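Subject: Re: docking follow-up (magnesium ion)

Dear J.,

Thanks for your patience while I sorted out the input files. As discussed at Tuesday's group meeting, I've set up the holo structure prediction with magnesium ion included as the bound ligand rather than trying to dock it afterwards. The sequence and the ligand SMILES I used are pasted below, so you can double-check that they match what you have on your end before we go further.
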Amino acid sequence: MSFDHRKYRPVPVIDKPDRRWPSQRIEKAPLWAAVDLRDGNQALIKPMSVAQKRRFFQMLVELGFKEIEVGFPSASQIDFDFCRALIEEDLVPDDVHIQVLTQAREELIARTFESLKGAKNAVVHIYNATSPTFREQVFNVDREGCKAIAVKAAGWVKEYAAKQPETHWTFQYSPETFSATETDFAVEVIDAVNAVWRPDQGQRVIINLPATVEVSTPNVFADQVETVNDRIQHRDHVIISVHTHDDRGCGVAAAELAVMAGADRVEGTLLGNGERTGNMDLVTAGMNLYSQGIDPQIDFSRMKEIVALVEEITDIQTHPRHPYAGDLVFSAFSGSHQDAIRKCLARYQEGDIWTVAYLPIDPADVGRRYEEVVRINSQSGKGGVAHVLERDFGIDLPRWLQQELAGVVQQDAEQDGGEITSERVHRRFNSDYLSVPMGWTLRSYDLNRNAGPEKGAVQAQISIGDSSQPVTLLSGRGDGAMSALVDALNRRIASDVKVVSFDEYSLGDNTEANAMACIRVQVGGVTQSAVAMASDTTAAALQAILSAVGRVEAASTVARAADA
Ligand SMILES: CC(=O)SCCNC(=O)CCNC(=O)[C@H](O)C(C)(C)COP(=O)(O)OP(=O)(O)OC[C@H]1O[C@@H](n2cnc3c(N)ncnc32)[C@H](O)[C@@H]1OP(=O)(O)O
Ligand SMILES: CC(C)C(=O)C(=O)O
Ligand SMILES: [Mg+2]
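The structure tokens for the complex came back this morning:
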């Protein structure tokens, strides 16, 4: 049997009755370290060139990152050359630390220091794996042997750094595979490294705790981090960093819980590129803070540029549902979502606290347009259809007509199976409601009040017809213009015409048509709606009635012809 869960074992949980992290809140951004140019780079099919690294570095600086792991200079000439270029061309701002990784081997450490000659601020980052799998199968060492690798390397780092005093050095140590390491042993190794580096005597030290492979639920990782936080010596002089991967899809969650558990610093990559399923995504982690009203200290308003550059350099497309950055993450297709968004957006005003349903952040904050928010397909409802007409064409419809139009659009969407653009909704609105049936254009109207024997009644003379045809004259009487026209139509087409719904809107002064009328009539038991726009409200109302009745007439002519 190949699919056999019995070949796996769970990661042991920590019995930690004194855990405090669950009730902590994150109230400020951690220190961020971007490792795109190292961990991200080592996962690419085609690793970055020096030119690509330059562009990426430049963007990371512009976004606000202060610690940037720029490569593994002892492993590749490109990474070495890139370090040299950064230093020799003075491309690193004074407040930015460049960071480089090396294995815990002397020749590699020596080469690493060579690559950093002349740097103002640099982080030398050494690692060795500490978990049982690595001790037993990769390095063939016991706990003491494993600790000795780290301690020896810490000594070399101290020694080589002393030879380059022009640089302000930070030393960083990662017990690689920390999350799969017995936590008491991780603490022992960290203490041994710190005993060499002496953070308590002023050396800046970062202890980075990696979930090299994510092997547990984030709460277990948080327990591990809190244990280190509580137990290591010189805690107050050490920066605790975490470096999570996303093997179980919880890289960001693990880092967040780790910060609650005491971590000061978080390593990750933009959009989560990295080994296997990737590193923790800095965009998601930063924007999660932002959405809670916390300044992430990184300028994510440049989201489009971030996505474009990362995609170009990594040759990896961003998932359309990628948090905060994907193409579809601010779009709602489903009716009830659209309805709620539309109602909330209508109330939202610049300066308000953002409480728009279904949108955790304001899309505009990351350079997205409100036009993307409501999109129509067969899952949409009247709110969405009304929203796109209102948003893109300034057409406001009464509720009863929104419902009717939504039904029509829904049929189109179901037939086609895809998205219906707002232009298509508009075309459908025009053809089904706004267009005037042949022969039913209002040409002129003349209304005379008090003209008849009944005081206050309106006598209407209305001419209709297309410009190419002779006009038809209609004459009727009623309480107002509309009822006079209904009277005229009842006389002429000998049918029972009734107006069942009527709404009118002013379209503002800037349009040729100043008024819009929406009408629903019944003609001999057939219900028909129509809309008309005209320069005045009376003309719009009269035309809407004519269009509705004309449609019913045209349909019955077609039906009679078919029967004959
Ligand atoms: C989780 C991480 O992301 S760790 C970073 C991983 N990144 C990379 O590996 C990218 C760059 N690496 C490289 O280009 C190469 O591995 C180099 C240049 C660093 C080393 O190359 P090589 O000397 O050819 O060794 P190789 O790559 O096979 O590494 C395995 C050897 O390094 C040892 N090793 C592995 N990691 C470490 C470490 N952190 N500290 C000390 N020794 C180590 C192994 O035990 C093994 O030793 P052995 O040959 O005596 O059995
Ligand atoms: C070297 C370390 C920090 C690493 O990338 C990992 O463990 O994932
Ligand atoms: Mg990593």
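A couple of observations from a first look. Residues 537-563 form the longest helix (27 residues). The mean pLDDT is 95.

Let me know if you'd like me to rerun anything.

Best regards,
T.
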